[in-house]
Amino acid sequence: MTDTPRLPEGYEISTDPDRIDAGRVHRWLSTDAYWALGRSREKQDRAIAGSLNFGVYEALTGEQVAYARVITDRTTFAWLCDVYVDPSLRGKSLGTALVGAVREHLRPYGVRRILLATHDAHGVYEKLGFSALDRPDQWMALAFDR
Q1: pLDDT over threshold 90, residue 146
Q2: Which of 20, 96, 123, 140 has the fewest CB within 10 Å, making it most exposed?
Q3: Are 66 and 89 in contact (CB under 8 A)?
Q4: Which of 101, 84, 99, 72 is nearest to 25 (CA)?
Q5: Which residues have a Cβ under 8 Å from the Cβ of 57 and sit 6 or more positions away?
Q6: Measured between alpha carbons, how far is 56 from 133 in angstroms, rounded to an integer?
Q7: Taking the model in full, what pTM does it have?
Q8: 94: closest CA among 13, 27, 37?
Q9: Which residues sit opposite 52 in a β-bridge?
Q10: DSSP sequence for the chain
Q11: How far apart are CA 63 and CA 7, in angstroms?
Q12: Which residue in 70, 41, 37, 31 sits closest to 146, CA to CA?
């Protein structure tokens, strides 16, 4: 297993749901994340309420600069989604540190696997031990019309 990357100086991670800037997260995802374009604020708020949320914050100001959401039973399964870093701060390893923190947060629960889907960030996740499914033919999905 790979080491957990550290956040750069001046940033902190929290799972406190009261710290999530829901308006900012909605704006990021609904206008700039290919997987959530056009997502309504009401739908995003429900997703936040039903998930384990991670925020990265500037330590001095408390301003949220990154977000990740996990859907999990905290026992056997977790789905990592909505990973987003403010565009002005990309390239500073905030996303890698955030995903590493998610992995380490879930480890004590004994979750058997953490799944995710990505179109373009395979390298970020591979650094943290994620890999393509060994047997993708065993997995299926049911997609509802939007």
Answers
A1: no
A2: 140
A3: yes
A4: 84
A5: 11, 12, 13, 14, 19, 63, 64, 65
A6: 28
A7: 0.93
A8: 13
A9: 70
A10: -PPPPPPPTTEEEE--GGG--HHHHHHHHHHH-TTTTT--HHHHHHHHHTSEEEEEEETTT--EEEEEEEEE-SSSEEEEEEEEE-GGGTTSSHHHHHHHHHHHHHGGGT-SEEE---SS-HHHHHTTT----S-GGG--------
A11: 15
A12: 37
- First-to-final CA distance of the chain: 38
- Predicted confidence (pLDDT) per residue in 85-127, tens digit: 999 999 999 999 999 999 999 999 999 999 999 999 898 899 9
d(CA 19, CA 39): 21
Instruction: Report the amino acid identity of residue 90.
Output: R
Under a CB-based contact definition with an 8 Å cutoff, are residues 65 and 90 in contact? no
- Chain position carrying tokens 């704006």: 27
